[in-house]
């Protein structure tokens, strides 16, 4: 088949057994890989109505079809399960080398079932699979777990170098609903609270090492396709220059000019220019970063080790990406870059999603400033939680991971916290998950993309800003609803198939990686005769399957929405000044384009066409 | 005239494209960085591309510590040998040493410009 490793590993934590199954070639062709595989498995095997933290939920690690092959930016590994945060189908992805290593070990898919009575880790060394006690690792942060686990399983430090670890930190152990699964220390599968699912199974870590080469279907053509894509990216202003130098944070200033960076829980925007200059990617790179660091097979190298020496926020870790900067710096109003870096370090070490933490913090700050959260509830002696209170934010992040004091309320996510204080409308999110750092009143298409995302508020299911702001492949007016339904539809299918299922990082599209290049690499790495149309249909199939799962879980049209703030309160700044998002109109068009009925339910004819019935 | 590889280690980002393309060239129809003739030594903050060089059947004893500038490296971090101390630069099936053929593919594919091929007399 080429590209796919060809095996599925099933581990049962309740009975401490495992079995290896073959990957069916028509299944591979229909769902491509990554999130496509896991969506199908969840749909077939996990009842959508179960409690996400019960042993009936399954935690699925998948690699994309291109992951590890050397296709440009194809490093993604996916973690999937029913989400405890949103109640929807849940999936999140990380870069690094864990995804590729899973394939070198011979598996496209790792399915973890049941739950263990005591803490364990899974160690996969090619065909050898061990389930061992993780008592010594429990309670440790992700960085220490990564180092210690490698030492525990492989005394030879050179052989240990090839081991890659995905683990949870204290947040996942304590079932914090915004906890992440961390791979290679700093690469986060952040969204949907999947760390809590891993914690509920008492699974501390998965370590993997493999020695099977990944087959390439048509090596000569593949080589040519990859080189072409690499050359195109190296000549692209963003991919060849901006991202390697300043990471995705380089977009902070440009997006602020476009009115997208939120301010104070999206009450205002954009942030003052002199303030944005404090926390842009440029400032981080120039003052705190030591060198560039890339994921497996990626020319963008948007990561980078950073060190902060300021005693209040001292620490080391990696540079924050755009969303972290936009939400902490803009939405929470924390302007000191040291503080944002510290929160980023802490989230990575404790295993939490910076986006949900950012939104929940901003929401708590607004609730506090409006006196909806009484000061005594916070339990701080000297600190306040106004916008921009960096020390309180850092403290709250630590308290959340261990569910100490107010952190226990905070840990259940911003929606539940805001609801508890009677103001759920002040949480900026969709389907109970935190909003990306984009004020969608200045980019209406993104509003629809977030509202219709199957895993809760997410910008990466259809990155409409590529067209609305960056102008690839065509420049569209961001302040209009015209044509946005079609744009979102196309981008969702394309992203699902050529990025999320193929294992290519979505950042690369901003760096000049074209869908045509992605397809050329996918078609040559595999040799099952995938056409571009097949891929788009696979994308639509994945999308419909996720929608069906959500409908069965009770997530319906009423949940396909964004906060009232974007629908009722006109934008104060930016090109969209005075406008609100007309979501109803776009949603109606979108459902029609998808051949779904007025309530957003896929029609039998559509499902038949996609071979889902 | 002789081909010499020049390595700018401070430019290396650890993306492992050199390992990927080297293994694809030599394995012909598969990718496996562990069978590559160039490996990137990496820890959290440092990356050094190392090209397969001489072969040794013996381990070095005792292992020494390497200092470069102010930085300290673990024993054989920057060594190019195929030897019993570490699993690099060996054919997994035959155990034979793998040696760089100086084809220049890794130089051509390196996205960060960390590798350069120069002619030396």
Descriptive overview:
The complex is a heterodimer of chains A (613) and B (121). Chain A folds into three domains: 7-209, Aldehyde Ferredoxin Oxidoreductase,  A, domain 1 (4-Layer Sandwich); 249-434, Aldehyde Ferredoxin Oxidoreductase Protein, subunit A, domain 2 (Orthogonal Bundle), CATH 1.10.569.10; 443-511 and 531-609, Orthogonal Bundle (Aldehyde Ferredoxin Oxidoreductase Protein, subunit A, domain 3). The longest helix of chain A is centred in the C-terminal third of the chain and has 21 residues, at 532-552. Chain A has 28 helices and 17 strands. In chain A, a hairpin with a 2-residue loop joins strand 7 (120-125) and strand 8. In chain A, helix 2 crosses helix 22 (484-501), helix 8 runs antiparallel to helix 24 and helix 20 (444-452) packs across helix 22 (484-501). Chain B has 121 residues and is α+β, with helices and mostly antiparallel strands. In chain B, 13% of the residues lie in helices and 25% in strands. Chain B contains two helices and seven strands; from the N terminus they run E-H-E-E-E-E-E-H-E. The longest helix of chain B has 11 residues, at 17-27. The N and C termini of chain B lie close together (4 Å). Chains A and B meet through helix 5, strand 13 and helix 8 of A and helix 1 and strand 2 of B.
Topology summary:
The complex is a heterodimer of chains A (613) and B (121).
Chain A: E1 7-12, E2 17-22, H1 25-31, H2 34-45, E3 59-63, E4 77-82, E5 89-94, H3 98-104, E6 109-113, E7 120-125, E8 128-133, H4 142-153, H5 157-160, E9 164-167, H6 170-173, E10 181-183, E11 187-189, H7 194-200, E12 203-209, E13 214-215, H8 219-235, H9 237-246, H10 251-257, H11 273-279, H12 281-288, E14 305-308, E15 315-318, H13 322-331, H14 337-350, H15 354-369, H16 375-378, H17 390-401, H18 407-410, H19 414-420, E16 429-430, E17 433-434, H20 444-452, H21 465-470, H22 484-501, H23 507-510, H24 515-525, H25 532-552, H26 564-568, H27 583-593, H28 604-609
Chain B: E1 2-7, H1 17-27, E2 30-31, E3 38-42, E4 47-51, E5 66-68, E6 71-73, H2 105-109, E7 115-120
Antiparallel strand pairs in B: 1-7, 3-4, 5-6
